Amino acid sequence: MNDTTKPLNFIEKIITEDLQSGKIKQVKTRFPPEPNGYLHIGHAKSIVLNFGLAKTFGGTCNLRFDDTNPAKEEVEYVESIKEDVRWLGFKWDGAVRFASDYFDQLHAWAVYLIEEGKAYVCDLSQQEAREYRGTLTEPGKNSPYRERSIEENLRLFEKMRKGEFAEGSCTLRVKIDMAHPNMQMRDPVIYRIKKQKHHQTGDKWCIYPSYDFAHGQEDAIEGITHSICTLEFEEHRPLYDWFIENLPVPATPHQYEFSRLNVNYTVTSKRKLKQLVDEKYVDGWDDPRMPTISGMRRRGFTPKSIREFCDMAGVTRTDGVVDVSMLEFAIREDLNANAVRAMCVLRPLKVVLTNYPEDKKEVMIAPGHPQRDDLGTRKLPFGREIYIDQDDFRESANKKYKRLVIGKRVRLRNAYIIEADEAIRDDQGEIIEVRARVIEDTVGKNPADGIKAKGVIHWVSADESIDCEVRLYDRLFTEASPDAGGKDFLQSINPYSLEVVQGCKGEVSLAQATTEDHYQFEREGYFILDSRYSSADKPVFNRTIGLRDTWDKAKDKIG
Ligand code: ATP
Ligand code: MG
Questions:
Q1: Do 306 and 320 reside in the same domain of the chain?
Q2: Does one domain contain both 188 and 85?
Q3: Are residues 357 and 336 in the same domain?
Q4: Å from CA of 482 to ligand 1 middle
Q5: CA of 85 to the centre of ligand 2 (A)
Q6: Closest by CA position to 45, among listed 278, 333, 260
Q7: Among 160, 209, 258, 424, which one is least packed by beta carbons within 10 Å?
Q8: What is the pLDDT of residue 551?
Q9: Is 54 contained in some domain?
Q10: Which contacts qualify for 307-314: CB closer than 8 Å, 24 or more apart?
Q11: Residue whose CA is closest, atom 27 of ligand 1?
């Protein structure tokens, strides 16, 4: 174990016992996404769990695409999923696997079940099959095709494979028990006709195995010891076991279920996220407001913060909703410790320092991080004209306002104390400039006259700064459970989830920013260069998260 202070979760306990009893020699897990969308924060939980267990117990974890449904799956999704797993910091064992790699074997096992008299071709329509299935309180009825001979079934299944039947006209089902209390066991379908091209196998197949017929057998082929999935598959476990018992599989994997990760103010369903993308509520799967791993990456989340969050959420069998502020806490913790500091003025207001010579230039030295010498220092050019934020100046204000006020002093971060004299207005009466004075000899020192500054504000040199755009994000939904109880989640989209601020002025060090560098813009939050909209002429920075939790205030704005 790499962390002896934390109690084991229930899956870790099971694995520990299995290793101790000699039931298994080495743990082998897998992460089995269906490539029908981009991964979201819920998948991160499954990734951290599966790859994490392998790491903790010295085993391995496979990445296997569950691509049994050609209709909704695409190569784009396969590529994005691989990138996300890698970015989260995990390495799968050997090559990437696909359920479709095993189609030949699965087909052979379907034939085997027919030969054993345990599977039959059924001509009931979908509607009829539903009626025959019964309900939770009533047993089902046997299909009229259930007693077909082995020879006839073999012949019909071969015709299915060759594409001689229309889609929907028949299926291959296993013969278990139509009166079984578990509906999953009432002769489930294991092969369907789908005349569709597959992204891996092309036109080779026109019949495709069901998820249930594929998953456990794939686990067995790969030697997976602990097949971990979410609770909605609990009911499928007897069927999982039935296939393992009734087929000549090379190993006997076991399925274990844990509860899904749900986060408030978020939806975690690929289908719903796809709808947000398709209907253009967001600008793609990696929109920084999306709870997708790619969106979070673009927004400036770190792999470490996501892993930490998943660990904090824990592994249980009880459904619950995790507060999104826990995720925000995880990212703030990481960035506070590791992000380089910088100054960026979002809404610039020019300040002319009237007693500072026009031709004088200085360079202030600021730390890259207040506690981390290893993050070096920054050079801040200083001159007669600077920008401060419009919010940091008032002509008059009460004592609580610890920024620049006429006749009062404020410290410019990493530079002088200044005192404001006058506000200059344009024809419309808007303040366009402030006249102020520097107090001599106050860089890193208090003034000789003993009149201290009340607050500290950030600034940039007017001559030497970069022009940039800043994008501020808020939660995508205004309701804590946007899709609870079948509610239309589109109704609670937050109209203020994106604010684009143009004309920002950043310190010169930001000219070197890459999409790998995290910054704390002092007093504004944590930022990263946007990977889509940035250009050499105009960098665009995404606010990953504010410095503090300001959601309660924002809610007041929304009403
Ligand atoms: P979605 O409903 O978003 O499509 P899914 O479960 O259908 O999710 P898969 O691609 O089949 O998505 O999931 C891959 C793995 O991730 C599965 O083992 C699944 O159980 C797990 N997983 C999916 N969503 C969550 C979640 N919210 N919390 C934890 N694990 C999840
Ligand atoms: Mg799924």
A1: yes
A2: yes
A3: no
A4: 19
A5: 17
A6: 260
A7: 424
A8: 52
A9: yes
A10: 307/44, 307/48, 307/52, 307/88, 307/89, 308/333, 308/334, 309/41, 309/44, 310/44, 310/45, 310/48, 310/49, 310/261, 311/48, 311/52, 313/45, 313/261, 314/9
A11: 42
Residue 440 tokens read as: 């001599």
pLDDT value at position 49?
98
**Residue 21 lies inside a defined structural domain of this protein:** yes
| Ligand 1: nearest atom to the Cα of 260 | 28
Q: What is the pLDDT of residue 319?
A: 87
Whether 183 contacts 239, CB under 8 Å: no
| Domain harbouring 198, CATH code | 3.40.50.620
Cβ < 6 A, ligand 1 pocket? 32-34, 42-43, 45-46, 66, 229-230, 260-261, 268-270
Ligand closest to the CA atom of residue 229: 1
Same domain, 477 and 454: no
Query: Is 2 contained in some domain?
Result: no
Compute the distance between CA of residue 299 and CA of residue 525 in angstroms, rounded to an integer.
12
Nearest by Cα to 354 from 434, 240, 458, 464: 434
Residues 377 and 371: their CA atoms lie apart, in Å, by 12
Residue 5 domain-assigned (yes or no) = no
Residues 153 and 218 in one domain: yes
Alpha carbon of 330 to ligand 2 centroid (Å): 27
- List all residues 6 or more positions away from 437 whose beta carbon is below 8 Å from its beta carbon: 353, 354, 355, 356, 418, 419, 421
Indicate if 82 and 19 belong to the same structural domain: yes
Q: Ligand 1 atom 18: the closest Cα is on which residue?
A: 229
Only one residue has tokens 């509607």, namely 127
Of 413, 433, 458, the one marking the end of a domain is: 458
The pLDDT tens digits for 179-197 are 999 999 999 999 999 999 9
- Residue ranges, the chain, pLDDT below 70: 1-4, 550-559
pLDDT of residue 72: 82
Share of the chain above pLDDT 70, in %: 97
Q: What is the pTM of this model?
A: 0.94
Which residue in this structure is represented by tokens 């719903």? 272
Token duo for residue 557: 């704005």
Residues 6 or more apart from 156 whose CB is under 8 A from it? 121, 148, 170
- Active-site option among 270, 297, 332, 475: 270
Q: By alpha-carbon position, which residue is closest to atom 3 of ligand 1?
A: 269
**364-388 per-position pLDDT tens digit:** 999 999 999 999 999 999 999 999 9
Half-sphere exposure of 249 (CA within 13 A, CB side): 28
CATH of the domain at 322: 2.40.240.10
